[in-house]
Amino acid sequence: MWPRQSFDVPGAGPGPVPSTVHVVSEVMKPGNSQTTSVVEQTPSGSAEFFDPDRHGDEDTAPGVIDFAVNVRPGPPEFLVSALRDRIADLGRYPSAADLTAATSAVARLHGRDRSEVLLLGGAAEGFELLAKLAPKHVALVQPSFTEPERVLRAAGARISQVILTDPWSLADVHVPDDADMVVVGNPTNPTSVLHTRAHIDSLRRPGRTVVIDEAFADLTLDPVTGAHEPQSLAGERSDDLIVVRSITKTFALAGLRAGYLLASPAIIARLSTGRRHWPLGTLALVALAVCAGDEGQAYARAQSEAVAAHRAYLSTRLAECGWPPAADAAASYVLIRVPNALQVKERLRHRGIGVRSCANFVGLGPDHLRIAVRSPELTDVLVGALQDVMAENAPPFTRQSRESEAT
Ligand SMILES: Cc1ncc(COP(=O)(O)O)c(C=O)c1O
Q: What is the pLDDT of residues 177-203, one digit of tens each?
C-alpha cells in the first residue's frame, strides 16, 4: 500500500467538499526503489481541487471561456452530418455491419488486423477493461491522467506511483522490477510531454504489459520533419503492448464516448470476454469509422498543425507574463507553474475564464495549471486577464516574486 497523507480542511468550498482531503506526493528516485513522502501546503478553501476524481470539465461551465478542457473546438461538419444521417437508425440495435466498418477503418489506419482492435466507449473504458488481465502490480508513470489509478485500484491491483520530476522525461525512470503492468501517457496529460518510442521501449520486460495512453497522439507532429504522430506505437505488433486511443479530443466528441485499443489478438480476446453486448451505440460506431477514415485523418492532421501553431503563440504570450510552459509541449495543452495557482485560477474564473488546476495530479500540486491551446484571439483574452490578475496583485503573482521564490 502506498503512503497517503490525510488532512482535514475545514471550510473548504465551494462545491462538493470531501470531509477528508488526500494530498499525496510520493517520489520514486531513479535507481532507488525507496519512496519518500512529501507533504505539500494546502491552501484554505481549495479542498475540492485535491479530489482525485475531479476532472477538467468541473473547471468550466456554459458561458466560461474554456481553457480547462482539452477537447478541440468542433465537431467538424462532415462528422456531424454523418452522425445526423444515422439518427433515424437509433430505433434499431447497433448492427454488425457498423461494427465491422468501424473496426476495419481503425485496423486499416494503423496497419493492424481486425482481431487486434477493440472498440471502446471512450479511452476511459479501456483502462477499466485492463482489470480483466488481473495485473498483480501496476506501475503508473506519473503525473498522468487520473482514471487508470482509480479503476485499477478499485479492481484490487497493487499500485506503485513512479513519479517523474521536471522535465518529466522517462530517461532515468525506475520502474519496480516486479511490476507486471506499466501505464504511461504519450503525450502525457497534463505535462504535454511526448516520450520517444525508445524510452517507452525501455519500459518493456518479459512478463510485463506496457499500456500506452495515446488519447492525444493524433494531435502530435514531429517539430522537424512535420511527421504526424511521430512517437505513436499504435502500429506496433507486439504481445506486450496495449495502445489506448480516443476520438473524443481531436474530433470534439467527448459527449459521445468513443475510442479503441490496439493489442495482440490474445489480449483482445481476454478484454472482450464477459463484456456486455452492444458496448457501443450506432453513432459511436459511425463516428469511429469516419474519424479513422481518410476525411477524418486529414482533419486530424490539420488539427495537429493548428495546435502546433497556436501552442507556439500561447507559449510565447505566457512567457511574456513570466510563466512559460514548464515542459516542451507536444499536445493541445501546456502546463505552467504559478505561485498561488489556485488563487490565480479563481481570479481568472471571476473574469469568465476557466483553467485546469493540477492540484489532484499525482506528482504535481496546487502550484501548477494546465492551459488548453486555443485560437490566438482567445489566447489574447486569457493573457490580458492574466496580466490584470498580476497587476492587481503585484506580489506574490509576479515573475519577480516567482524567481525569488525559486532561490
Ligand atoms: C490522457 C487521457 N487519456 C484518456 C482520456 C479519456 O478519453 P475518453 O474521452 O476517450 O474516454 C482522457 C480524458 O481526459 C485523457 O486526458
A: 999 999 999 999 999 999 999 999 999
pLDDT, averaged across the chain: 86
CA of 246, closest atom in ligand 1: 10
Which of the four pLDDT bands, split at 50, 70 and 90, describes residue 15? very low
Give me the number of domains the chain comprises. Answer: 2
Same domain, 234 and 221: yes
**Within-domain flag for 30:** no
User: Which one of 262, 297, 332 terminates a domain?
Assistant: 297
Question: What's the CA-to-centroid distance between 125 and ligand 1, angstroms?
Answer: 9
Residues 6+ apart with CB under 8 A from 359: 46, 49, 50, 341, 342, 365, 366, 368
Contact between 51 and 58 (Cβ < 8 Å): no
Identify the CA nearest to 342 among candidates 366, 371, 364, 372: 366
Can you give the pTM of this predicted structure? 0.86
Question: What value does the mean pLDDT take over residues 314-342?
Answer: 95
pLDDT in tens, 26-45: 333 333 333 322 223 334 45
Calpha distance 301→90 (Å, rounded): 31
Ligand 1 pocket check for 254: Cβ under 6 Å: yes
Alpha-carbon distance 151 to 133, whole Å?
13
Q: How far is the CA of 246 from the centre of ligand 1 (A)?
A: 7
Give distance in angstroms: CA of 402 to centre of ligand 1.
Answer: 32
124 CB near ligand 1 (under 6 Å) = yes
Residues 292 and 307 in one domain: no
Can you tell me the distance from the alpha carbon of 65 to that of 383, in angstroms, rounded to the nearest whole number? 12
Any atom of ligand 1 within 6 Å of the Cβ of 246 = yes
Domain assignment of residue 145, given as a range: 79-297
Q: What is the chain's length? A: 407
Cell digits of residue 253? 466528441
Query: What is the residue whose three cell numbers read 488539427?
Result: 303
Closest atom of ligand 1 to 185 CA is: 1
